[in-house]
Design goal:
heterodimer, A: 307 residues, mainly alpha, 3 domains, 18 helices, globular, B: 126 residues, alpha/beta, Rossmann fold, five-stranded parallel beta sheet, 6 helices, 21% strand
Chain lengths: 307, 126
């Protein structure tokens, strides 16, 4: 190895280390600023006179930290004063900053900026400028763009989800359910379950699961009997299981019999984790498959799955 | 004046800051901890009136966190857990572990503040 190559390696290592340290320092400063803004926003929202609290962020870094703080507060709480938040957003021109960042950035950063935008009160007309991101090839970007659209115009939620080009993944539905839990979207599950749209049905099932709506059981049995889409049928069986309902009906057994072995094992594991008794598992699975459930119940793994 | 103490445990500083701001007031001092060891030591030293834990992991990893928190404090400080999970089994497991109150995110700020104020008030009177 020549002295020249050693010199290049040393310089490159020092440069990378310096860049990494600068990035870490910057992140730490943003994190500290964000925590300060979280305190100010919380005081503002809990204050009896919100107009008396002023929150100002001048530089770009401070405004990003403020947007992160608003996202943290809004995503962890519900029933807040939207007008007070809108005032902070307008005062610090966060909307224009985030729109510019979204247009200029790519990949994960663009998805993150869209996520921050979903937490601030927006004008629905402006959100139309972001609608093309819902067709992005990047999964994170398109679901974040969908979240922005849903949060800005909740009355159009069903139409927006129905026109979404891609099938919702469990991660996507969890993001939408988070909006529901904040009270932004309606929890009317029946029209969703009756719909012919795949995404709406998946969301309807997720609502039933998430909120433990036991009166939906009849609807779920109807879907298991009549539905042709295997994904929907599987999701419906999982939904029934999450409600802790009996699964020994003839139609469910037939559906289970048609399942591939790996999917049956997956469901067997899920039922065990959900707390179904061994006799309940034995009534719908073969003896060989039930042994797996028995092993799982007797092991420490069942408790760990909940983590 | 002897201020009452609230200890908050979370590995996420943002969530801890938020909850600290909600439950904190002039008459209560809030201490945030980012590790279980620190939480146990803080509780032993300060003997808080209320402990708020923003995670469920410490209850299912076999670390016996509740035992550590209440060790050496005969007043048995109330423990609130606030987390995202809402499955019935998790709630039951936490109650079996000795948790007094379980709340799910997203939370209503004024409700959490009201609950913590009344809890501190009750603990102080006892």
């Amino acid at each position: 190895m020549t002295i020249g190559s050693v010199y290049i390696i040393v310089v490159t290592t020092i440069t990378i280390a310096t860049l990494l340290l600068t990035w870490l320092q910057n992140r730490r400063q943003v994190s500290s600023l964000r925590n300060q803004y979280i305190k100010q926003i919380t005081s503002l929202l809990l204050s009896e006179q919100p107009s008396s609290v002023k929150i100002l962020a001048r530089s770009r870094r401070n405004r990003i930290a403020l947007a992160e703080a608003i996202y943290t507060v809004v995503s962890h709480t519900y029933g807040n004063d939207t007008d007070a938040l809108r005032h902070v957003v307008e005062q610090n021109r966060l909307e224009s900053l985030l729109f510019r960042e979204i247009h200029l950035s790519h990949g994960t950063r663009r998805a993150r900026m869209l996520m921050l935008l979903s937490a601030i009160p927006l004008n629905a007309d402006k959100v139309k400028q972001l609608s093309h991101y819902m067709h992005s090839h990047d999964r994170d970007i398109r679901i974040s763009a969908l979240t922005v659209a849903l949060a800005s115009s909740p009355s159009m939620a069903i139409r927006t989800i129905a026109t979404f080009d891609f099938a919702l993944t469990p991660f996507d539905t969890a993001r939408i359910i988070a909006l529901l839990r904040r009270g932004l979207l309606p929890i009317a599950y029946e029209p969703l379950l009756d719909s012919n749209n795949h995404n709406l049905r998946i969301l309807g099932l997720a609502i039933v699961r998430s909120f433990g709506i036991e009166i939906a059981e009849k609807h779920l049995h109807k879907i298991i009997s009549a539905e042709e889409d295997i994904t929907i049928v599987n999701q419906t069986i999982y939904t029934l299981a999450s409600l802790g309902r009996p699964l020994h009906h003839t139609r469910i057994r037939e559906r289970l019999a048609a399942m591939p072995a790996c999917k049956r094992k997956e469901l067997c594991r899920h039922l065990t984790v959900e707390g179904y008794s061994l006799s309940a598992v034995r009534s719908i699975f073969t003896e060989q498959e039930s042994v797996y459930a028995e092993l799982l119940i007797n092991s420490y793994k069942r408790a760990l799955v909940h983590a | 004046m002897n201020r009452s103490k609230i200890v908050i445990y979370s590995r996420c500083t943002a969530a801890a800051t938020l909850v600290a701001e909600i439950v904190g007031c002039d008459s209560a001092r809030v201490i945030c901890c980012s590790s279980q060891e620190l939480l146990a030591t803080t509780c032993e030293q300060h003997q808080p009136e209320l402990v708020i834990i923003l995670a469920i992991k410490p209850f299912i990893d076999g670390s016996e966190l509740i035992k550590q928190i209440r060790r050496g404090d005969k007043r048995r400080p109330p423990i609130y857990v606030v987390a995202w999970q809402q499955s019935e089994q998790i709630v039951l497991s936490l109650l079996e572990c000795g948790v007094d109150q379980y709340m799910t995110f997203p939370i209503c700020m004024s409700r959490l503040r009201g609950k913590s104020y009344s809890q501190i008030d009750t603990t102080q009177r006892v």
